[in-house]
Design brief:
With 273 residues, the chain is α/β, with parallel strands linked by helices. Helices cover 39% and strands 14% of the residues. It has one domain: Rossmann fold (3-Layer(aba) Sandwich). The chain has a 7-stranded parallel sheet, sandwiched between helices. The mean pLDDT is 93.
Length: 273
């Protein structure tokens, strides 16, 4: 929270948000953004020990507890595979029971991860293996569809809500490498726009954020990063901070985004121009 603001004075006071893929990295940052707006927050990870993989915490439960203590809001944690529809229902049911009706869904789960974990060994448009094609599509596009379907149905009953999907600048690229990931993220953009069209008559805002390179623990540990791109000002040719992407989420989830829907906002310093 900023300054002397109290939870009851904030736009998310008395409301609930769910952030998928939020035990670490960008998702955790977005959960912190929403908690700072006063929302109770549902924290999700694929496995309980997800944060430990990149030294970005220890457990999903630990992340939820830390956010609750830091921001003074209620949190709940759930783990499960969002590419399995029955798991999606179970997780959303549990979060709704703990926090109340979901006012904001922020879907961040995804990643260019193959069937055996890590990046696919052949990761181009031609040679990537079938199991990896399915894994990347399921992790990104199918989870988006299944989670948004489940939450949107519930929001439609109340004629209110915000949905924000997290795609990537990759969705707008043309590259032989990471071809399936690029295709999945482009599919997320298309699905978000279709969902926004359907939700318009229910008063539900649906938007998409497409970040570029962002300085998460995972990004910094898995890539060789030019130190010149780690500055925080003076140039747009740099790696985004978590706060810079989080401010766009705050816009879409908060009152400034009341009359915005069906939009996709790249957060990459103009890299894709």
């Amino acid at each position: 929270m900023n300054g002397d603001a109290q939870v009851g004075d904030l736009p998310g006071s008395g409301k609930a948000a769910v952030v998928t893929g939020s035990s670490r990295g960008l998702g955790r940052s977005f959960a912190e953004t929403l908690a700072g707006m006063g929302y109770s927050v549902g924290i999700h990870g694929l496995l309980e020990d997800d944060p430990a993989e990149y030294d970005d915490g220890t457990t999903v439960t630990g992340t939820a507890n830390t956010i609750a203590e830091q921001f003074g809001v209620k949190t709940v944690s759930c783990v499960g595979d969002l590419s399995i529809k029955s798991e999606v229902v179970r997780i959303i049911d549990a979060m709704t029971e703990a926090l109340g009706p979901i006012d904001v869904l922020l879907h961040c789960a995804g990643g260019d991860t193959g069937a055996a974990g890590g990046k696919p060994q052949h990761n181009d448009a031609v040679h990537i293996q079938e199991a990896d094609v399915r894994a990347v599509l399921e992790r990104n596009l199918l989870t988006t569809i299944f989670v948004c379907q489940e939450v949107a149905r519930r929001m439609m009953e109340r004629s209110t809500g915000r949905i924000v999907t997290i795609s990537s600048q990759a969705a707008f690229g043309r590259t032989a490498t990471e071809a399936i990931y690029t295709s999945a993220k482009a599919g997320m953009v298309a699905y978000t726009k279709c969902l926004a069209t359907q939700m318009r008559n229910y008063g539900i805002n649906v938007n998409c954020v497409a970040p570029g390179d962002t300085r998460t623990a995972r990004f910094l540990k898995t890539r060789e990063v030019d130190s010149k791109r780690l500055v925080t000002e003076g140039t747009l040719d740099r790696i985004a901070t978590l706060d810079e992407v989080g401010r766009v989420v705050e816009f879409f989830a908060g009152p400034l985004g009341d009359f915005v829907s069906g939009e996709v906002l790249l957060v990459n310093g103009g890299y894709a121009i």
